[in-house]
Amino acid sequence: AKDLSHVPCKFFKVGGCTAGPDCPFSHQQPGQPKDVCTWFVKGQCKFGHKCALAHVLP
């Protein structure tokens, strides 16, 4: 199975996700700091500016 934890949950966004903690998608609130993209840190993120994670260097 694919890891979809970085993809925002469209149902959570509108307050209607019934999967709760079992949802494979991200329930991160807008404005919450994003997790750092470990692939970007390694210089290997294939998503570029479309990546759902933060592109910051430590």
Give a description of the structure:
The protein has 58 residues and is mostly loops. It is 14% helix and 0% strand. The protein has two helices and no strands. It has helices at 10-13, 38-41. The mean pLDDT is 85.
Structure characteristics:
14% helix; little secondary structure; single chain; 58 residues; repeat; elongated
Radius of gyration: 13 Å
Give the rounded overall mean pLDDT. 85
Name the beta content range.
Answer: under 5%
Helix and strand element order: HH
User: Sheet with the most strands?
Assistant: none
Extended strand count: 0
Distance between the termini: 30 Å
Helix content: 10-25%
Number of helices: 2
Question: Could you give the topology of this structure?
Answer:
Blueprint: H1 10-13, H2 38-41
Keywords: Metal-binding, Repeat, Zinc, Zinc-finger
InterPro entries: MKRN-like (IPR045072), Znf-CCCH_4 (IPR041367), Znf_CCCH (IPR000571), Znf_CCCH_sf (IPR036855)
GO molecular function: ubiquitin protein ligase activity; zinc ion binding
Brief overview:
The chain has 58 residues and is low in regular secondary structure.
